[in-house]
Amino acid sequence: MQFTITLDRDEDGVWIAECPAIPGCVSQGQTREEATTNVKEAIAACLEVRAARGMALTIETQLVEVVA
After folding, report:
1. Triad 17, 19, 25: Cα angle to 5°
2. Alpha-carbon radius of gyration of the chain
3. Which residue, 21, 29, 37, 51, is the most exposed by fewest CB within 10 angstroms?
4. Structural domain tally of the chain?
């Protein structure tokens, strides 16, 4: 499976990685690469837990255009 993730830095310079399609699926790392590796592990764990609980594996996400 493929997922879109977001990467951002917090005020301490730590990279925060999140998977918008899985509520609460967030990880972090000292580098972009570490955060990406960690969020991949978090995604796998979240999918496992959601499957065991009979929950939908993901929620629907969409790309929308906003004119500013």
Report:
1. 85
2. 13
3. 51
4. 1
For 27-51, the pLDDT digits (tens) are 999 999 999 999 999 999 999 999 9
The pLDDT, as a whole number, for residue 68 is 87
Please say whether the beta carbons of 1 and 23 come within 8 A.
Answer: no
Beta bridge partners, 3, equal: none
What is the arithmetic mean of pLDDT over 9-36? 97
Cα dihedral angle (11, 17, 31, 49), rounded to 10 degrees?
A: 130
CATH code of 9's domain: 3.30.160.250
Closest C-alpha to 56, from 21, 24, 20, 6: 21
Q: What's at 11, amino acid-wise?
A: E
| pTM above threshold 0.85 | yes
